[in-house]
Amino acid sequence: MTATPDLGAPRLASPDLLRSTFRRHAAGVAVITARGAGGPVGFTATSLTSVSAEPPLVSFGIGTGGSSWPAIAEADHVGVHILGEHQGELAATFARSGADRFGARTAWREGPEGVPLLDGVLAWLVCRIVGRVPAGDHRIVLAEVALGDPTGTGRPLLYHQGRFTALRD
């Protein structure tokens, strides 16, 4: 007889089940930025994914109830920033509702296509949005890479168990 793993007590699908499960999944941390009608917008994303090498495509999820969604819904281009382990405070700022994300504490500049680019990141891309796919209370945004810089130094910032953390050796 084959032993079965201890699966615990299964729970029915719910938002809490999904959140509890993905707290156990370590994810890289990115900030997505765009130029909005009222100025720059941005948000922290752990859903960034490489989709295709040819053409170079990425995707990320964004909640339609979030403050950045109206700008992302209309934007032609976005900035994608891979954060380093030294940028936990920056990640928290872009994740916090009502925060002054582009205030004096955030070092940034206007980049190509008017996209806000954050300073000091491990890597950044400017991408042209090619699709917005409805997915529940979110949209999956598909974006084609136009240009970028992968030469920042340091180690990546991670999100795990509801907090920002770093790799351990």
TrEMBL record:
Keyword field: Oxidoreductase
One MF annotation (Gene Ontology) recorded for this entry: riboflavin reductase (NADPH) activity
SUPFAM superfamilies the record matches: FMN-binding split barrel (SSF50475)
BP GO terms, sorted: pyrimidine nucleobase catabolic process
Domain Flavin reductase like: 22-166
Name used for this protein in its record: Flavin-dependent reductase
Native species: Streptomyces lucensis JCM 4490
Lineage: Bacteria, Bacillati, Actinomycetota, Actinomycetes, Kitasatosporales
